[in-house]
Specification:
This protein is an alpha+beta fold and 358 residues long. The chain contains 9 helices and 18 strands. α1 crosses α3 and α6 runs antiparallel to α8.
Length: 358
């Protein structure tokens, strides 16, 4: 499947080393102010080649709007946006055209489709996620009307981190670090792995604020279930937690329940969701990324004929996925929220406003 969402949905297309990647976004409310500068700014946050903590691939990631916008406002019809690839180096992969890269989807894609697109992974490449960020930016235009905030940052790099989150700092940080006092240690871990031709894993956190009560469709389209689905669809994600997550398994019910007083919830172990429906509290999502599988150390693997080979990979790759991945996670959360909002109301921006402010 190449599509996500029910009422607010998107479909991505394109490959890592193809001519372009793009997205068709359906269900966008009519009459929404279309802020193209904001969308470009969001895409730039994910853009490769920004600093030494990301891949050296240089892409401008300039968006081109093809449809669905007239005189600065959305028309309610599908919005088509394309981003042309300008800095592919497919020759870096020509020597491994028949070899499976450990930790990549090469093996499974080949056995599923019978085709080996060796150019940076083709469709399975994280290059596809730029299209998700575009869709998420459009979703944010809706959320901005309602003053719903979706924030993100990196809490841990290679096990270095804390639960003390500073989202304002993360927005300015080169690695989107949520913990100022640990940022230098996190950077060092990334650079050390890079120098050793290796990579590191990390954890991103998405926080959603000012959510109305009632988003989520029991029982089979729960808000937390769809958020988890969205996060697990991102390249390199191996685990997702809502609220206290795994820590809740170590507690007593009396410790984990969120009691209430006349002001509302006293704690937020539920992560803003009860029974699959938003309870008005802020939502916290932890997204755990594995180390980047593209590393430059010799590795033993197979080729498409079943022969054992030694792989010596070349190319340009992120030493850590979680940094730019946090922007993608933020985008996917925004898409889920707008989809859930539309499931609770009409399909115009005025309908959304009326529901939100009821």
């Amino acid at each position: 499947m190449n599509s996500f969402g029910r009422l607010f949905s998107f479909t991505t297309f394109g490959e890592s080393h193809g001519k372009a990647v793009g997205v068709v976004i359906d269900g966008v409310p009519a009459g929404l102010e279309f802020d193209e500068t904001f969308i470009q700014d969001e895409v730039d946050r994910r853009r490769p080649g920004r600093n030494s903590f990301a891949t050296a691939r240089k892409e401008s990631d300039k968006i081109e709007v093809l449809s669905g916008v007239f005189e600065g406002k959305t028309t309610g019809t599908p919005i088509g946006i394309v981003i042309y690839n300008t800095n592919q180096k497919s020759k870096d992969y020509s020597k491994i055209r028949d070899i499976f890269r450990p930790g990549h989807a090469d093996f499974t894609y080949f056995h599923k489709y019978g085709i080996r697109d060796y150019r940076g992974g083709g469709r399975s490449s994280a290059r596809e996620t730029v299209a998700r960020v575009v869709a998420g930016a459009v979703a944010k235009l809706v959320l901005r009307e309602l003053k719903i905030e979706v924030l993100s940052g990196v809490s841990h790099i290679h096990g270095i981190g804390s639960s003390d989150y500073n989202f304002h700092h993360a927005r300015k940080s080169e690695i989107y670090s949520l913990t100022p006092k640990l940022e230098e240690a996190q950077k060092q871990a990334i650079l050390e792995a890079k120098e050793n031709h290796d990579s590191v894993g990390g954890t991103a956190v998405v926080r959603i604020k000012h959510i109305p009560i009632g988003l989520g469709e029991p029982i089979y389209y729960k808000l937390d279930a769809v958020l988890a689905d969205a996060m697990m669809s991102i390249n390199g994600v191996k685990g997702v937690e809502i609220g206290s997550g795994i820590d809740s398994t170590t507690r007593l019910g009396s410790e984990n329940n969120d009691e209430m007083d006349r002001h509302g919830f006293i704690s937020n172990n539920a992560g803003g969701i009860l029974g699959g429906i938003s309870n008005g509290n802020y939502i916290d999502i932890k997204v755990h990324f594995k180390p980047t599988p593209s590393i430059f150390r010799p590795q033993t693997t197979q080729d498409i004929f079943g022969n054992v080979q030694e792989l010596k990979l070349k190319g340009r790759h992120d030493p850590v996925i979680a940094v730019r991945g946090s922007v993608v996670a933020e985008a996917m959360a925004s898409i889920v929220l707008v989809d859930m909002l539309l499931l609770n109301m009409g399909r115009t921006i005025d309908g959304i406003r009326n529901f939100y402010h009821k």
